Amino acid sequence: MNDCTSSLAFEVEKWWSLLLEQGWCVIPSLLPQSLIEALDSDLSGDFDETPFCRGGFYGARTKRFGRLLARSQRSAELVEHELVLGIVERVLAPWCDTIQLNLTQALALHPGAPPQLPHRDQDMWRGAVGETEYLVNVMWPFTRYTRENGATMVWPNSHGRRALDPDPPPGEFAVELEPGSALLFLGSTLHCAGGNSSREVRRGAIVSYCLGWLKPYENQWLAYPPEVARRFSRELAALVGYRQHRPNLGNYEGQCPSILLSGEQPQRIGAVDALRPDQEELVAEFVRNQDWPLPAAAA
Ligand SMILES: O=C(O)CCC(=O)C(=O)O
Ligand SMILES: [Fe+2]
């Protein structure tokens, strides 16, 4: 390992352990403020023109829109941030081979927005509670997040098995943030948008990642069809679904959907196993011991 990779590994380990311990962490100065400003400005038309949300969860004084990777190339710097990806992979590795992008969503909390319902993002899936971490959320502020303008509220130590407790633990607080920093929290951590009692609009983006075999919140293949994903790096395309999760999940005609990102496709492709090593072994053993004569014509 060279110095660079070993210091990345050290940082991953440090933030991973804090995130698992507290259920949340803030990493300061992850990206230059100038990049965040430029991204905010790329999205200004969308922030202006997107209608307010409807429904008590999204919030009637809040605007939201997704597909950030199709709206501004700069959003890839958030999604593919090396340290963030390292931490997320470390958190989710016990339950999947590879992670995927769950959503990118810009959001603007306008003056007068009331606090959001406290919730756990993992509750979008009806899996077992308290045993599995399904996702990691990253909140990237574009403007300063303050208690007054509705900074995200987090309940420390409400994660993991504590998600089974009927009452939330005391000690919730508003996570004040500067643009360029990021708030990471687990899918099992209780949180919500605070209320905006200021005169300013709180803008930012959520980037979340989940286990590679789950149904993501935002339909990534529709958000980024092959003609869009073709412009992405290999890793980014894989994160938005152009990669199979063993065994064979998310395949296209029985092969890795990344085949759609290059050149012309033959009309008929033919399926190829993509199995986990344990399944590979089981199948190989089964096939080896099979004594099944081929019909004469095929022999
Ligand atoms: O806007 C925020 O601070 C949090 C939003 C949130 O948790 C959500 O929409 O799921
Ligand atoms: Fe949430």
Textual characterization of the structure:
- Helices cover 27% and strands 16% of the residues.
- With 299 residues, it is an alpha+beta fold.
- α1 packs across α6.
- The structure holds 2-oxoglutaric acid and fe (ii) ion.
- Residues 107, 116, 121, 152, 191-193 line the site of 2-oxoglutaric acid (AKG).
- 2-oxoglutaric acid (AKG) binds at residues 107, 116, 121, 152, 191-193.
What attributes characterize this protein structure?
single chain; 299 residues; 6-stranded antiparallel beta sheet; 3-stranded antiparallel beta sheet; 10 helices; 16% strand; globular; binds fe (ii) ion
Write a concise synopsis of the structure shown.
The protein has 299 residues and is of the alpha+beta class. It contains ten helices and nine strands.
Structural class: alpha+beta
Count, helices: 10
Question: What is the CA-atom radius of gyration, in angstroms?
Answer: 22 Å
Overall shape: it is: globular
Strand order of the largest sheet: 1-7-4-9-3-2
Q: Give start-end ranges of low-pLDDT stretches.
A: none
Largest sheet: 6 strands, antiparallel
What is the number of beta strands? Answer: 9
Residues in β-strands, percent? 15-25%
Compute the average pLDDT.
Answer: 96
Bound molecules: 2-oxoglutaric acid, fe (ii) ion
Give me the secondary-structure topology.
Blueprint: H1 3-22, E1 24-27, H2 33-42, H3 44-49, E2 62-65, H4 68-71, H5 75-79, H6 82-92, E3 99-109, E4 135-141, E5 153-154, E6 173-174, E7 182-186, E8 191-192, E9 202-211, H7 220-223, H8 226-229, H9 234-239, H10 277-288
Antiparallel strand pairs: 1-7, 2-3, 3-9, 4-7, 4-9, 5-6, 5-8
